[in-house]
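Here is an idea for our session: we take a single protein and study its fold together. Once you have written the record down, we can walk along the chain together.
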Amino acid sequence: MNVTIEDSCIGCGACESICDAVFHVEDKAEVNSSNIAGNEDCVKEAAGACPVSAITVA
């Protein structure tokens, strides 16, 4: 699974609140790629909850 954050990220923190093992927000969200395995469900949930659709999951 490949997870990227688009420039449209507003840094709201929704992804981090849903899946803090993978997402960390300072000014904008960052992805901890080494923690994606085993957390796929919450990654998908976080992507769906992003208010600006800035998380791409492939």
Q: What stands out?
A: The first helix runs from residue 14 to 18. The chain is about 25% helix and 20% strand. The radius of gyration is 10 Å. Strands lie at 3-5, 23-25, 29-31, 55-57.
